[in-house]
Write a structure and sequence with these properties.
Radius of gyration of chain B: 28 Å
Largest interface: A-B, 15 and 19 residues
Strand order of the largest sheet of chain B: 7-8-3-10-11
Structural class of chain B: mainly beta
Strand content of chain A: 25-35%
Oligomer: heterodimer
Radius of gyration of chain A: 21 Å
Number of strands of chain B: 21
Shape of chain A: elongated
Order of helices and strands of chain B: HEEEEEEEEEEEEEEEEEHHEEEE
Number of domains of chain A: 1
Number of helices of chain B: 3
CATH class of chain A: Mainly Beta
Order of helices and strands of chain A: HEEEEEEE
Number of strands of chain A: 7
Largest sheet of chain B: 5 strands, antiparallel
Largest sheet of chain A: 5 strands, mixed
Helix content of chain B: under 10%
Helix content of chain A: 10-25%
Shape of chain B: elongated
CATH topology of chain A: Immunoglobulin-like
Number of helices of chain A: 1
Distance between the termini of chain A: 82 Å
Number of domains of chain B: 2
């Protein structure tokens, strides 16, 4: 019985460590890195609409993407790859309308420690004839 | 220690197998049935069943088998009069057991001419056009020489509202009508302006990927380069490109994917564009006509760049 109590005590101690989570239930870590590492843009057929790799400028916080001629800009699925533990705001929940080229869409990357925020602009250029 | 020995003894006793006995077959005529076709039931296609019947040798022989469909099958409906076995080379060899089946109203019947105790017969029901949107049920039955009769009910099976057309050849500058499920060339279009939903074109333009395209006659002219449109052809048809949707009925490939009525009902096309360019073989497109009457899926069976042509197949669903 004494042994059992001892084991329970150990279990309790090992579980009591504090793991802070944010409002999304995601773990807040010590990482301060905050950038987009890769960007993809898919059409309604889930095929890429990029003509080449997106150019991500982590200093200017811009993502330059050139898309195929005739791409339906109203129905695109963006995909962001972020540095470890970072998250994106707003969240991507489905198709996004990128047709207003004069007002590019902005997405904010939030670092793992939730203290650094960087807002990236997605600049789309349509391939011309 | 004593407890452990008792437990072990119990285990040994519990593991003893019962003696196997060969099951005794029922001393009567029996039957069973399975449906062999998968996917939605489309008018013009078959529903295939395998109907098995058997009785012990001492009881006599099977004298007839028949199927009653709640809606009479279209021309071509038949009950197989052969029983098949697979030979050593993997080939199905048929052995005739009766006369070819006879269709009479809703009944399809085979009278046995060979002394047969056990047989599985295939039944091919060609879905009639008038069954679209309805349910159909089947009653399979068999009779034996000792006066016994058995029956087996199958269904109900819902018959799809979809229409289908396969392998329509299209050439650069042809028009596609969803209402008619047909392809027209420019000279045909004089009296059909109100039915032209799409233009098929192929363009090889430097620096961009235009290729094979389906474009509404009313789309921006930049997507209809050098296309001659008949006067009044200006419909805005909604088009949504799809990849990897190789419907089994349309593509007839190895992929077990079927577009069903529900797919058309739940499709969201409100923000779809009026053109789709750079289409390839095995790609497709969801279509909604300008009047909202029809939705369709056009599958590209073959796209030929050199001949500026394609072969398309279509499933169509009437919304209104």
């Amino acid at each position: 019985m004494k042994k059992l109590l001892f084991l329970l005590a150990i279990t309790f101690i090992s579980c009591s460590k504090d793991h802070p989570v944010d409002e999304d239930g995601l773990l807040i870590t010590s990482r301060a890195e905050c950038y987009v590492s890769n960007f993809e843009l898919l059409g309604v057929d889930f095929q890429t609409v990029r003509t080449k790799n997106a150019v991500i400028d982590t200093t200017a916080c811009t993502i330059d993407v050139t898309v195929f001629y005739g791409t339906d800009l109203k129905n695109l699925y963006p995909q962001f790859s972020l540095v470890t533990d970072a998250k994106l705001d707003p969240k991507i929940t489905g198709k996004v309308d990128f047709s207003d080229l004069a007002n590019p869409k902005s997405y904010t990357v939030i670092s793992g420690n939730r203290k650094v925020r960087k807002t990236y602009k997605v600049l789309i250029t349509v391939q011309s004839k | 220690m004593r407890n452990i020995i008792i437990a072990l003894l119990l285990l040994v006793a519990a593991c003893k197998d019962k003696d196997y006995t060969v099951p005794v077959p029922k001393d009567a005529l029996q039957n069973d049935c399975i449906k062999r076709t998968l996917g939605p039931n489309l008018a013009g296609l078959n529903i295939e069943f395998a109907y098995a019947m058997a009785l012990p040798l001492t009881k006599g022989k099977i004298i007839s088998a028949q199927v009653e469909a709640s809606i009479a099958g279209a021309t071509g409906t038949y009950l197989e009069n052969k029983s098949y076995y697979t030979n050593g080379s993997g080939v199905d060899v048929g052995i005739q057991i009766g006369d070819p089946s006879v269709n009479e109203n809703n009944f399809t019947k085979v009278n046995f001419t060979k002394d047969t105790n056990a047989v599985t017969l295939r039944y091919y029901y060609v879905i009639p056009k008038e069954a679209q949107g309805k349910s159909v049920t089947f009653t399979f039955s068999a009779k034996s020489s000792d006066g016994e009769a058995v029956s087996y009910k199958m269904g109900p099976y819902v018959i799809s509202k979809m229409d289908m057309v396969l392998d329509l050849p299209v050439k650069d500058g042809d028009f596609i009508s969803i209402a008619d499920m047909a392809v027209y060339n420019l000279t045909d279009t004089a009296t059909k302006t109100d039915k032209l939903d799409l233009v098929y074109l192929f363009r090889s333009i430097p620096n961009i990927s235009f290729g094979h395209a389906l474009v509404s006659p009313g789309a921006e002219r930049e997507y209809l380069p050098d296309v001659t449109l008949p006067a009044g052809a200006n419909k805005i048809t909604k088009i949504s490109k799809v990849w990897n949707l190789r419907d089994f009925h349309l593509a007839r490939l190895q992929y077990g994917i079927y577009i069903d009525d529900l797919d058309f009902e739940q499709l969201k096309m409100s923000d779809a564009p009026d053109y789709a360019i750079n289409l390839k073989s095995e790609a497709g497109a969801w279509i909604e006509t300008a009047d909202g009457k029809y939705r369709a899926y056009i599958y590209i069976n073959k796209a030929d760049d050199a001949k500026k042509s394609a072969v398309i197949s279509m499933k169509r669903y009437m919304l209104k």
